[in-house]
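Supplementary notes (optional reading)

For those who missed the lab, this is the record we used. Protein: Nucleoside-diphosphate-sugar epimerase. Length: 304 residues.
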Amino acid sequence: MRGPVQGLQNLCHRLIFRAMTNTLLSLGHGYSARALAELLLPQGWRILGTTRTPEKAEALAKTGIEPVLWEEEALKAALAQSTHLLVSAGPGPDGDPSLNLIGDAIAAHAPNLYWAGYLSTTGVYGDHHGAWVDETTPLTPGTERGMQRVEAEAAWGAITGLPLHVFRLAGIYGPGRGPFAKVRAGKARQIIKRGQVFSRIHVDDIARVLAASIERPNPGAVYNVCDNDPAPPQDVIAHAAQLLQLPEPPKVDFAKAELTDMARSFYAESKRVSNERIKNELGVELLYPDYHAGLAALLRDESP
């Protein structure tokens, strides 16, 4: 009888927490987390967002977010109040910053959490020479950042009892992160590398995917978060110029392009990322299924 009894206890526990005020603790409250907060706050959610300085805490509070200083005791107290957890803070050479600071506390408070999400990257798949990948594709990262993400995913997945969902994000764009500023300033270039394609995702669609997962929890699930149209990066730049009715930016061969080490590393990998799982399992209908729709929306939003 232990199995049925335990199952009933777990059900009762979930119902109790669903009856509580939904409270999301956002570790590393950045660009994507802010987009999710804009969806959840009107629904009556409490959002606890981390910050490292009192000045930034004041700015957070003005947006309806309850600021939590990035220090151990404050984070433990916030965790104890939370029904949901979103981890945006990325790993570095020293590992995952959230786990380094409060990993033990997260494990201790896991029964209080109904849902947890970790924002990873499609960089964990490595280079596939333009071929398609999905969530079942083996992880073969070719960059240090990709390797760190694989390690972080595994570390979060090792926390016993944590209802973890992993979201592998493609290249993120949205308000303040579009190509228009560079095109207008005449600084944009079409970097040409034969066979190079990237997947991308509008930040508002990231928020929709996260919200859909919160509504349909499936602990242990992994989701690719990208749009329907992997495309060469130069096509995006050229289309942005066309929308602005400006001359097409000059084309530069990748081998001769002046790029930062970070920018050059993005061109080390080429793949097309499948998003079928977010559509089939979560029922997500993307607002911006390709960069044409996404860039058009950004330009409309810029208009007075």
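If you only remember one thing from this example: The domain at 2-173+202-227+275-289 is CATH 3.40.50.720 (Rossmann fold).
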